[in-house]
């Protein structure tokens, strides 16, 4: 899309990167944007993660780098030039941040900060697995931690239940970290873990917000000997908090080491319930370029999420832009979206209000080759009478292309109305 092109060009011109790591699906788009910048004469080293879709063009790939004949002694003795711990080590274009440029600046100290060392526990000569893409919040931190901890990492290109179970069994995986794929595990009623030997698995971590509680409880009961951990954080802050028990739809957990949170009430947000407060964060490695300039929260980083706290536990509800006003009341439609997404033919769902906030529309992204009807979706919602009465959805609109996305890869809800 045009807006995505502008974002990439902006990033290239502002940051002038020396090396770019890019998913194979986005490689062609990146090259096209570089060519559009005719006066951009800087030679950039590009490393492709995944299969090269332009084999005629000779470029580095993760596979080719890993296949080099390295001297192990040289690797063990390798050291970088000394840098100030607060200097920027990594600049990510796609982050959880919702800002236009989508940049997150990660300093060197983030890789050794105590707040980022707890999830997951890494022990040398063990094996970890995650599927998150390059713009995933935890990706850079996990990569560097795994290298420093002598942990082997399995990176599968495509997520599926079968691939997950077989990989754990084959490579004796110790921990798994899932991103935004949790509900996909149990779209059916089958619990497939019992078919595989996954006794090596000790920790199962996830950072998915949109988890239906019955899915989560079924998952926990299927893995009684595995520690289930829900992680909350951003690329800018690293890990903020984690949850190990009493799971619910909202995130309820404890703040990790060296992290402080501030809950601030704000006016002039009609879509936010008055009991919810905006969450600000302070960690030793937050870059000064990220902190707020508001006098009341000076030097605190605005996460953009809203929630509340009770004693030493925090409750995070969602990002403030994911709330709407419906019939003059602040609401969000997460439960409706989760319920509809569990249909086996549905890839993704977004429910919004149009026009004048008194009419609900559900946009449905179907899985190619599968069938779903409006009547089937209505019956799903009718099985949740308390929800259906509050938010009656009769307008279902099917789309065949992907939803517009933010720099963090999440759906840009502010542009959904443009699909009409």
Automatic annotation (TrEMBL):
The keyword Lipid metabolism does not apply. Keywords: Ligase. InterPro entries: AMP-bd_C_sf, ANL_N_sf. The keyword Ligase applies. One of its GO terms (molecular function) is CoA-ligase activity. Belongs to the ATP-dependent AMP-binding enzyme family. This is 4-coumarate--CoA ligase-like 7. It comes from Pogonomyrmex barbatus (red harvester ant).
């Amino acid at each position: 899309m045009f807006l995505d092109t502008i974002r990439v060009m902006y990033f290239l011109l502002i940051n002038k990167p020396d090396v770019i790591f890019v998913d194979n699906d986005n490689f062609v788009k990146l090259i096209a944007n570089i060519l559009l910048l005719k006066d951009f004469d800087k030679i950039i080293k590009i490393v492709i993660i995944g299969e090269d879709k332009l084999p005629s063009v000779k470029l580095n790939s993760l596979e080719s780098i890993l296949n080099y004949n390295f001297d192990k002694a040289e690797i063990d003795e390798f050291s970088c030039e000394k840098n100030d711990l607060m200097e920027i080590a990594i600049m990510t274009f796609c982050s959880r941040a919702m800002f236009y440029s989508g940049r997150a600046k990660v300093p060197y100290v983030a890789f050794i900060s105590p707040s980022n060392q707890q999830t997951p526990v890494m022990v040398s000569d063990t094996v970890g697995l995650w599927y998150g893409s390059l713009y995933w919040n935890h990706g850079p931190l996990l990569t560097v931690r795994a290298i420093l901890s002598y942990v082997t990492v399995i990176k599968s290109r495509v997520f599926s239940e079968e691939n997950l179970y077989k990989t754990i069994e084959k490579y004796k995986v110790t921990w798994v970290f899932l991103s935004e794929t949790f509900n996909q595990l149990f779209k059916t009623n089958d619990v497939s873990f019992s078919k595989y030997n996954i006794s090596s698995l000790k920790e199962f971590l996830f950072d998915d917000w949109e988890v239906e509680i019955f899915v989560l409880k079924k998952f926990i009961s299927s893995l009684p000997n595995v520690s289930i951990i829900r992680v909350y954080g951003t690329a800018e802050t690293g890990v903020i908090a984690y949850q190990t028990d009493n799971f619910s739809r909202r995130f309820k957990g404890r703040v990790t080491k060296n992290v402080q949170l501030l809950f601030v009430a704000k006016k002039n947000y009609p879509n936010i319930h008055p009991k919810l407060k905006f969450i600000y964060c302070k960690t030793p490695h937050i870059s000064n370029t990220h902190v707020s300039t508001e006098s009341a929260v000076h030097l605190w980083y605005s996460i953009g999420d809203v929630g509340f706290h009770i004693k030493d536990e925090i409750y995070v509800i969602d990002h403030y832009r994911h709330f709407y006003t419906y019939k003059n009341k602040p609401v969000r439609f997460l439960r409706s979206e989760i319920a509809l997404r569990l249909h086996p033919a549905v890839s993704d769902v977004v429910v919004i209000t149009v026009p004048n906030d008194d009419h609900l529309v559900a946009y449905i992204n179907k899985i190619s080759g599968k069938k779903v009807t409006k009547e089937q979706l209505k019956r799903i919602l009718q099985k949740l009478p308390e929800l259906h009465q509050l938010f009656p959805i009769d307008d279902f609109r099917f789309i065949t292309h992907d939803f517009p996305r933010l720099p963090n890869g999440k759906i840009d809800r502010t542009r959904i109305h443009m699909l009409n």
